[in-house]
Amino acid sequence: MRMFQVTACVxxxxxxxxxxxxxxxxxxxxxxxxxxxxxxxxxxxMGGTIVKVKLVTGRPGTNTGLV
Length: 67
Known about the structure:
three-stranded antiparallel beta sheet, 15% helix
């Protein structure tokens, strides 16, 4: 199964009192190849930026380390 490993930075919407207290949240997630365009638009609509995208194979939740 082809998937993208996406690392993105999204501004946090909780506990914002002033513009200076805007906090960024970084996260990494696996996105199926077919859903990449929808996920990309979701991140950009939230005001976030995509930091890194990597094409990976395998199933989510499985260990992909060297044997």
